[in-house]
């Protein structure tokens, strides 16, 4: 069983535990921005798949291959809205199989299996890259933001050791954080 089928099955199980979705009577998994279930009842499935608009040849191939199975009577593609309507015989094929086949034939497995990244994480990465670039510019390439942070923690920790001795937990904590910053930087 490939990863897309496993992802579809896992998401279906998760959705069966969660609340009912009125537009998705079949409780199929939805993959935001890749293959979203817009409606699903036995024999009729509508998916929002932006790839239908961006990969028209793949969409036509997917349509032809699914209609040639005999279990799927018709596939209606709408590139303007990025949707596909699948009319199928629920006695011959399950809706999850139709969805999984459409995902596979459109080559969307990798997009579904990719680790989702929140907008907040993306924003923080952008901010970190800007700070890193600024530090590199300000130091004429001598150090990056990670090196600056590790150096600052080391200096603060050593200063704490000199002032308070080993009895001060703050100094040792700062040195521990500094070593983590430097260690993490060497594995990236």
Descriptive notes:
56% of the residues lie in helices and 13% in strands. The protein has 188 residues and is of the alpha+beta class. It has 2 domains: 3-113, 2-Layer Sandwich (Alpha-Beta Plaits), CATH 3.30.70; 119-187, no CATH class. Helix 1 packs across helix 4 (95-105), helix 3 (56-67) runs antiparallel to helix 4 (95-105) and helix 7 (145-164) packs antiparallel against helix 8 (169-187). The chain starts with a helix and ends with a helix.
How many beta strands in the DSSP annotation?
4
Number of helical runs? Answer: 8
**CATH class group of the largest domain:** Alpha Beta
Q: What sequence of helices (H) and strands (E) makes up the elements?
A: HEEHHEEHHHHH
Helical content (DSSP H or I, runs of 4+)? 55-70%
Secondary structure class reads: alpha+beta
Low-confidence stretches: 16-21
Number of domains: 2
Q: Based on CA inertia axes, which overall geometry fits?
A: elongated
Describe the strand arrangement of the main beta sheet, using strand numbers.
1-2-4-3
Task: State the separation between the terminal residues, measured CA to CA.
Answer: 33 Å
CATH topology of the largest domain: Alpha-Beta Plaits
Averaged pLDDT: 85
Question: In CATH terms, what is the architecture of the largest domain?
Answer: 2-Layer Sandwich
In a nutshell, what does this entry contain?
By secondary structure, this protein is α+β, with helices and mostly antiparallel strands. The protein has helices at 3-17, 51-54, 56-67, 95-105, 109-113, 119-138, 145-164, 169-187, and strands spanning 36-41, 44-48, 72-78, 83-88.
